[in-house]
Amino acid sequence: MMAQYLEIKAAHPGSILFYRMGDFYEMFFDDAVAASSALDIALTKRGKHDGADIPMCGVPVHAAEGYFLTLIRKGFRVAVCEQLESPEEAKKRGYKSVVKRDVVRLVTPGTLTEDSLLNARQNNFLAAFGRVRDESALAWVDISTGEVRVAACPTIRLLPEVARIGPSELLVADAHLEEIETILAETDVSLTPLAASSFDSSGAEKRLTTTYGVASLDAFGGFSRTELAALGALIAYLEITQKGKLPLLRPPLRETPGQVMQIDPATRRSLELTRSMSGARSGSLLGVIDRTVTAGGGRLLEQRVSNPSCDTDLIASRLDALGHMLSNNMVTEDLRQTLRQVPDIDRALGRISLDRAGPRDLAAIRSGLTQAETLSSKPFLMDGPPSVSGLLPTLGGHGALIDLLDAALVAEPPLLARDGGFIASGYDAELDEAQTLRDEGRGVIAGMQSDYADQTGISALKIKHNNVLGYFIETTATHADKMMAPPLSETFIHRQTTANAVRFTTVELSELETKILNAGSRALEIEKRLYSTLTAEILKASGQIGETARSLAELDVITSLTVLSKEGDWCRPLVDGSRAFDITAGRHPVVEAAQRREGGAGFVANDCALAGPDDPSFIWLITGPNMAGKSTFLRQNALIAILAQIGAYVPAQKAHIGIVSSLFSRVGASDDLARGRSTFMVEMVETAAILNQADERSLVILDEIGRGTSTYDGLSIAWATLEHLHDVNKCRALFATHYHEMTALSNRMDGIDNATVAVKEWEGEVIFLYQVQRGAADRSYGVQVAKLAGLPGAVIERARIVLDMLESGERKGVAARETIIDDLPLFSATPPPAPKPAKTSEVEERLESVLPDQLTPMDALALIYELKALKEPSA
């Protein structure tokens, strides 16, 4: 056995080998040491190898999926080695024959299919990066749903594309591994190196045509050599990990440049599109807007949030669908009630194709198709725009398959096929007989006994059982002669005579005995055969079922966004090819939702007008104090653009948005200590990326550029950045700053306009109004905000004094200001000590006794001479 283990392990050196031993998966040697630590299970030993104990650990087969997931999350890969025959079959080859075993599957981050290992509302993509000479491409597949896509991807675009797609595993050529590791260092994608032959474009084309069963790929569109290389690597890897059993794959879709809004990783993090800063779905834009009721709808909505469209016709069609749904809320809710009963058809179909399904997956197909048939006859959908009515043809047409599954399956099937009991009574006569014998064997024997008693006329006849004879017919010696004489002797065969009774059997009884003894295993075999027949019928219709699943997901997203629009009183945006960005009474969807949950004050809506037909300004320079809402204003306008371009209504009274081809955000402070980058360095790197990539169709939001360095350095960088955005990038932008000096730029640059967040000062306190209005702020109110934050009173008072002196110096000029700074003990924890009183002089003592109102002019003159004499005594 250990020789077999070592041979199989040698073929899979990079994976932990789960070696099947009966009801357990066992691990040995270094695998056992690593797995016991990673899984926190006991490490023991079994036998010896080269004179040393063999480390061993194991996990139950029925609980293996949870252990797979733990190992995958900790960076391991698992080779699942199963028994390919029973011990009884092995013994037929010889008493000491070892049960045949082999690896049937490699479990890696990108090849998971089990529900327990996946997030139902998120795709699990496996991606491949192919490069041919100076060109490169990225292909990705979700084997749990069959979705396949490919796009040209220059190496410089790899990081943002990986951030957009979010693959859990990326395949790269051995030669490029080190380079790709550096590029993707800040992501958590698992990199898997493959031999260069896996990316061979000629071999890839052959693999693809074989996989899809076509003579040519022309029917799927034209693919470049690099795109073929990336797609071919995916197929090659799936053949390796699935041991030749490929999942159902949809025809590959080619994404073209400019098809979706480009959003870099920093912007995705900053805007918290699908995950909040803490990494949770809650608190993100997706978490707030998701009202989907199906797993497929949830995945589709996440894809749209991650990939806002730049196709105005597609966006308009999606908005038309929402408008139709909003016209009748009662019908929309009825549709959602039906959708709530739709299981995850795509993933059930994926598991069926890989032979990892169970009876419940078949029931999921049945239930999903049944609900789709119900929806296909809804008049409200038939009367909708093409984006709604066009879904109907793919929802129906499954009647024969539904009838088959209805007749074949019980209402609530068990999880595993090996448990049996999932085929409905009355579907298969042979199975019914086997189950009756298995479950009601005694009743069948009693019926046969009654029949024999009637046939012989012997009421005392009994059918009994023992371990020697099995089932037999017993009667008293008095009646035995009758049974051994013709014609009964032709039916009843004498077996044994005892002192008090005579025992017989019949051919029918012998056959029944065999059936009863084998009924349990026979029933399971019949169910397995019927299960295979049912899965084959489902796979025949897999293409149509996949289309139905996609249409159900589309309907779910439409009705979900409809409910969202109604709840939040959102409006339909106008999205066109202009450069306009005109929002009336816009709101931040996430902040507003949080305020609503907490019962706080209502969100203060604000307008934003950039590059409109009557407004030449395409950049707003926004000043105002911290905590007043500048960052919220910046983010809300970026999120409104994203919502509009996924085809959703937006939180505003009115919105006109010219297509945003790329979105950039530099908001908030963060460092990257692992890569040796300070907060300011990260800020500069991200700002550089924006200035090097933004164009006229971009939207840029920047907050507090230059704050991580000295005042003059920061002001200079911010000033130059704003000029570059205006003169070179010419992009729509919202630029927030505390450098009030920059407001002067609006006087000499037509494209820049000043805006400020209004505040009110009352009795030394600052009140935030959260209203954005045209104009410039006169101050930052930093000391007041510090007071709100709870700084000690002594610090606040000292700050006021320092601020007054600095502002006074500012008015007097640089030299005066520097003198003040030299004299100010800044950052002093306590105020400077008061000066000691000087000794009183004779002049001061004399003046103390003088009453000015009683002095005559002559007296006053005399007093002056007297004081002068006291001040300057003679030598």
Automatic annotation (TrEMBL):
Residues 827-849 are annotated as: Disordered. ATP binds at residues 624-631. Keywords: ATP-binding, DNA damage, DNA repair, DNA-binding, Nucleotide-binding. One of its GO terms (cellular component) is cytosol. Residues 839-848 have a biased composition (Basic and acidic residues). GO terms for molecular function: ATP binding; ATP-dependent DNA damage sensor activity; damaged DNA binding; mismatched DNA binding. Pfam families: MutS_I (PF01624), MutS_II (PF05188), MutS_III (PF05192), MutS_IV (PF05190), MutS_V (PF00488). InterPro entries: DNA_mismatch_repair_MutS, DNA_mismatch_repair_MutS-lik_N, DNA_mismatch_repair_MutS/MSH, DNA_mismatch_repair_MutS_C, DNA_mismatch_repair_MutS_clamp, DNA_mismatch_repair_MutS_core, DNA_mismatch_repair_MutS_N, DNA_mismatch_repair_MutS_sf. GO terms for biological process: mismatch repair. Gene3D superfamilies: 1.10.1420.10, 6.10.140.430, DNA repair protein MutS, domain I, MutS, connector domain, P-loop containing nucleotide triphosphate hydrolases. It comes from the Bacteria. Residues 698-714 form the DNA mismatch repair proteins mutS family domain. PANTHER family: DNA MISMATCH REPAIR PROTEIN MSH1, MITOCHONDRIAL, DNA MISMATCH REPAIR PROTEIN MUTS FAMILY MEMBER. This protein is involved in the repair of mismatches in DNA. It is possible that it carries out the mismatch recognition step. This protein has a weak ATPase activity. Belongs to the DNA mismatch repair MutS family. NCBIfam families: mutS1 (TIGR01070), PRK05399.1 (NF003810). This is DNA mismatch repair protein MutS. It comes from Harenicola maris.
